[in-house]
Amino acid sequence: MSFDPDHYNELSSRKTNIPGLIEFKLPVHGDNRGWFKENFQREKFLKHGLPEDFQVIQNNISFNQKKGVTRGIHAEPWEKFISVGYGTVFAAIVDLRPTGNFGAVEVFELNPGTAIFVPRGLGNSFQTLEDNTVYTYLVNDHWSPEAKYTFVNLADPELAIKWPIDLDKVELSEKDKNHPMLSELRKEYGL
Q1: Is 137 a catalytic residue?
Q2: How many domains does the chain have?
Q3: Confidence band (pLDDT; 50, 70, 90) for 138?
Q4: How many helices (H) and strands (E) does the chain have?
Q5: Which of the four pLDDT bands, split at 50, 70 and 90, describes residue 96?
Q6: Percentage, residues of the chain above pLDDT 70
Q7: 97 SS3 class
Q8: Which residue range is the domain that position 159 belongs to?
Q9: HSE-up of 75 (CA within 13 Å, CB side)?
């Protein structure tokens, strides 16, 4: 694992170019046994820009056995606090809200010392950069099969996401391979 806990000593945050999307640096404390982090502490995160109305009601974990597993781009009807329990991911977040920022992309390298807050309407995706990566996210609504999701293709040339591992060499679901292009969503929104 390439993560070095000695480089993460205090909680900090950074606003991004996409409104509401926040990157956090998390304190991680390591010693000869491994490391420990306080992954989420509401009061501390509120002081660093987390919206007050973000109330966690579900925790999800995605275990990814191989380097190169790629998932997304999915926008769910809830907000997420995303972090990594083990490994490293390249995360690409796309603004899929029908606003002036539609189609904006932000990318991150997430490891146990980083996290992001993703508002409702932003599409999230990730690619594992190590074997046995554990990707975890807190959400403020229960999963439902009736929920309306918005999808965009990972390989959309308009988004021009520079994936660290070429998409023709990664593990992808058939569903993710066949998501529509951003231009189709633009037509649906009338943009």
Answers
A1: yes
A2: 1
A3: very high
A4: 3, 13
A5: very high
A6: 96
A7: coil
A8: 5-189
A9: 20
CA-CA distance, 100 to 30, in Å (whole number)?
43
For 98, 102, 130, the CA distances from 87, given in Å and listed in that order, are: 34, 30, 6
Place of tokens 């956090």: 24
Could you identify the residue written with the tokens 């306080």? 38
Query: Which residue among the candidates 74, 86, 135, 149 is catalytic per the annotation?
Result: 74
The SS3 assignment for 130 reads: coil
Distance from C-alpha of 89 to C-alpha of 111, rounded to nearest angstrom:
7
Distance, CA of 92 to CA of 102 (rounded, Å): 14
- Locate all alpha helices (DSSP H) within 47-189, ordered by sequence: 174-177, 182-189
- Element (H or E) spanning 90, and its range? strand 89-95
Cα separation, 53 vs 191, whole angstroms: 29
CATH number, residue 136:
2.60.120.10
Among residues 7, 48, 135, 137, the one annotated as catalytic is 137
Task: Answer yes or no: are the C-beta atoms of 171 and 68 closer than 8 Å.
Answer: yes
Token output for 8? 């993460």
